[in-house]
Amino acid sequence: MKRATMVQPSSTFVNINKKNLWVSLAIAVLSLCFVPINVSAAVRRHPPQQHHLSRKPSPKLRFGRNGEFKILQVADMHYADGKTTPCEDVLPSQVDGCSDLNTTAFIHRMIEAEKPNFIIFTGDNIYGFDSKDSAKSMDAAFAPAIAARIPWAAVLGNHDQEGTLSREGVMKHIVGLNHTLSQFNPSELHVIDGFGNYNLEVGGVEGSGFVNKSILNLYFLDSGDYSTVPAIPGYGWIKPSQQLWFQRTSAKLRRAYMSPPNAQKSSAPGLVYFHIPLPEVASFDSTNFTGVRQEDIGSASVNSGFFTTLVEAGDVKAVFTGHDHVNDFCGQLTGIQLCYGGGFGYHAYGKAGWPRRARVVVASLEKTEEGGWGTVKSIKTWKRLDDKHLTAIDGEVLWSKKHTGKVE
């Protein structure tokens, strides 16, 4: 995201000018109709394309024998050129020796501490302006996940394409890396806005009755970079073609989940990942979220209606974004949790003395009457800080078959 003006949590919220709000909504409708610091080195937006990358069959994601599926979200690495890249917004005592390598070390620490089943990078993975070679920067940025041989996926932010590769080129490079499950775009569609719209299915435990059924659905979308409509300033948004793909995919997965064998009565829970937050995130205040809000919400200046699309689909339980580095909260709106990952990278704006952080999400299965594993019973989350102890904070239940609330 851009360098933002920092706002204290107690004074973040401003009154919305109703006249400006109606003007923005009118424009929207028209547009749619048309690791501690001193670590060592050891440790253009393009029109839709009508071709797709061929991919080898991807390994199947599934829940572990402990009945859990753990996801590590890495938001806004802003990786550039490694050890020569300076850190931003750290304490004066931390400046010396701080670089992209601190970001790399943080990922290694998180992998070792949490042992995730899957890693998701939610955009601005590299900072194109400061990267001499975008491909090399991406290779280095994703290296910890690749070295750990952990399946991973990525979506694009608004800065990934600002270097030596176009937005299309960046996604093509990501898709070609080892151990990634990222996809260029849906194979069944010839035209869809953006690069990196896809879904992944998470199967049940090996040997259980749900081994061949997706019991957790993951959706990934390209939220764009900047508006291409002259009358509309600011960031991009999720377009009608992407929303239609999501609707059809969600409906297809619902039918499969509710069909034999082991037909279920409702949808499998879904999680959605993209970079730029939805405008609805601005509706939260300190009384109805967990975490902190320290800067303005960097959403598009128009509302494309994607949140309504998510609500209507009925399966999505949580949405995870990045973009606003010093916001790290989750808030529930109309049954859907809207969550920030929290700023991860050291070559990204932050707040000196406020540690970089990562979000962890764990989906847990219920036990069947026979003592085996069934479907998802709860989805929990917490964050870890890049401090001496990788301190875990803000544990909460995002969704369960019974209730949501803070984890005791």
Automatic annotation (TrEMBL):
Cofactor(s) listed in the protein's UniProt record: Zn(2+)
Entry keyword Ribonucleoprotein: no
Chief location: secreted
Keyword terms of this UniProt record: Glycoprotein, Iron, Metal-binding, Secreted, Signal, Zinc
Stored SUPFAM superfamilies: Metallo-dependent phosphatases
Family as reported in the entry's similarity comment: Belongs to the metallophosphoesterase superfamily. Purple acid phosphatase family.
Protein name: Calcineurin-like phosphoesterase domain-containing protein
Native organism: Gossypium raimondii
